[in-house]
Amino acid sequence: MGEDWAISLKNVSKCFKRYPRPVDRLKETFLPGKSTVDTFWALKNINLEIPKGQTVGVVGQNGSGKSTLLQIIAGTLTPTLGELQVNGRVGALLELGSGFNPEFTGRQNVFFYGRLLGLSQQEIEQRFDDIAGFAEIGDFIEQPVKTYSSGMFVRLAFSVVAQVNADILIIDEALSVGDMYFQKKCIEKMKSLKKQTSILYVSHSITSVRNFCDRAIWIKEGEVEKDGECSFVCEAYEDSFIQRQAQNDAINKQNETNKITKNIDNQEQEVVIREVTTNKSTYLSGEDITITLNLDFIKPIQYYGVGILIRNEAGDLVTLFNTVRDDVVIEKPHEVIKLCIPNNNFTRGTYFIFASIVDDHILYPYDKLDFSANFFVDVKKNNIGIPVAEGYFRADHNWIF
Ligand SMILES: Nc1ncnc2c1ncn2[C@@H]1O[C@H](COP(=O)(O)OP(=O)(O)OP(=O)(O)O)[C@@H](O)[C@H]1O
Ligand SMILES: [Mg+2]
């Protein structure tokens, strides 16, 4: 490993033993060969080289191996196979609790943890006021940390890690238990350390990985699924769970369609929604969207309303359109009805269309078709590659100076 490398992993794998019953653990020690033990590879053949000064975000589902990877790099776990080289002093904020003794006061833990991270007694004394000042936990610094809230705990732990002048900073999503004020303060601190420090940052907030890191690694079932430029990896990871959601919803849609078939058998029904389609399956924000409803009128109804609900992947109602609400009066059967949404303001994600034909006071449905169609919206990126919008919707707006 040359001078420019901070971390290098060659074919690193980690195997855990899992004992079905506690007694199996004892059996393995005292009666080798008689125990029932399962082996589980939490990391498989990981190859990584992280240059000095790079900020790397690690993403992946629960249980995919992110914390295991960070603990191996931090030295609190040893790899079962493979080779690890770490070039410099590591400051790690791993799971809550590691490195702190609950019976000690905050002050004592600063010294205890500081020594663990490689600082001398004198160095910690010099930095103590900065550490306590950054943590902002007041008199609690003199109380045993077992009396701390999880937010206070992470405040103190981060403050120590941030003051050790580590060459490699490892943060495992612990920050998320801090309040908004402290999370912001941590991010600002990490930004100031970014230039001279290599940072490995696990987070379930894709936005913070995307905006803060230079590179992202997606860990899937113990293997590197994607590694590279941040927005590329984050997008692939996001798409993977959008796809999973769409698969679930397709099953729901199937169930709903079955219900509709029953409705068609009902001789009393006046109108049936045959089909709902969109003019494209993927839109860029700002493009026009056209939704088309095809209806079959079995009995002539004169006054009715058309409703379209748009839900996101979580099932939340994002917006709705209804002719009755819009004071649009329909006076005869129309077999094809279109809704045009010009210059769409949707943010990135998959959207599901729920259609209904209702009476002219929206009191009851003549027919409805849930999950009748879906579409995907991708958001434009700005000049430096950050999506122009996030959240539920993007209102039209102007900046005035
Ligand atoms: N000490 C252990 N003994 C046995 N299995 C373990 C041990 N530590 C972790 N595992 C298993 O290894 C896998 C990876 O765990 P890990 O904690 O690295 O996941 P993670 O990606 O950090 O998940 P999360 O997003 O929930 O924090 C999991 O299936 C977990 O059950
Ligand atoms: Mg974890």
Automatic annotation (TrEMBL):
SUPFAM superfamilies: P-loop containing nucleoside triphosphate hydrolases. SMART domains: AAA. The lineage of its organism: Bacteria, Bacillati, Cyanobacteriota, Cyanophyceae, Nostocales. This is ABC transporter ATP-binding protein. Keywords: ATP-binding, Nucleotide-binding, Transport. Belongs to the ABC transporter superfamily. It comes from the Bacteria. Residues 7-246 form the ABC transporter domain. The keyword Protease does not apply. The keyword Nucleotide-binding applies. GO terms for molecular function: ATP binding.
